[in-house]
Design a protein that fits this description.
transferase activity; alpha/beta; 7-stranded parallel sheet; Rossmann fold; 12 helices
Amino acid sequence: MTVMKIGLITTLDTNIGDDFIRDGIRGLLSERYRGRTIEFVSVNKHSPFTVYPPWHPVHVRNLAGLLPLGRDRVRSAIERVCSRIGETRFDSCDLIVQCGAPVFWPECSASEWAVPLWHQVVGRLSSRIPVLNLAAGSCYPWERQPVKLEPEADAKYVRDILGYCRLTTVRDPLAERLCKSVGGDVVRLPCSAFLAFEPPAAREPEYVLVNYMPGGGHYEWDQGIDPSIWEGTVRRLVAELRKSEKVAFLCHDDRELALARALAPDLPAFLPRNSVEYGACIARAKFALCNRMHASVAMAGMGIPSIAVCTDTRLLMVAELGLPAYYVKDATPDLLLERTGQMLRTLDDERERLLTLQAQTRQGYLAALDGALSAS
């Protein structure tokens, strides 16, 4: 049987949330091409030149760093000339897929993968290999959400990548609006990470999980966020919740684990290292409060509701699931305690709603894939 090769533009060994995005997409593609043997070829977009095999002459670019002058100019010239040779790991693929994560953010056109992956590889191959951009999201400061793509370099970059792709799905309304501002035709569906986990046949919810990040998110974005206020809010929430619930921390990296242990040394703190461990961990949750948006999305896929708190428009991805999502400055202790109480009283209804939405989301993706790939 002929093996189908699918190239994935993704992030590797950086953030477990990217694994959930990729797992959801792999599952969809496996279902779309059920009965075929699939080989996934993953390229880390943060190391874009790994799209080339080790023997490829493009790697001579690394020697440019030895030059006394003109390093960047020489390196760019080597990349431009050698990229025309082709022979990348994607050249032999039957399909190329960009796997979720923020695609639109301030100065996204300057990302390290924009030229070497999108323009020099995907752009060249898009005339003969179908390209999909799935679960693309926005990441802008909550207080400075744009109405259109600016500057023009970002607008051109997005127009180009939309033009390379047979299908673009976006995971939030801002991403949809920005694509439409440059004439893009996109489909809005929840993040593919929502499809990464299936609810276990039987489970016994045990914990209220807390995922804590200083200041409420990855970036402060010059919005005047005081991290001590959010820390105080989390301390109060934990103190109130543990009066009636078993509380534990859910951590995505070693830093979060150290912060959790400093915040409440006597409470359990979990740090799953892969998707399998993560699924087993969140299966024990009845509810969660999350600063990591993909913690909320992953749990929602198991029918577990949460409240999300963040600093930027990644919040919109969680709101798309019908879950409460708050900008950190608005997330007061009283508000969060009130919403937590409401959601703990309606867990069964929320579970049913989320699982129904997950099934609808899967069908929405499969229909979009069929429309884009009907001839593939």
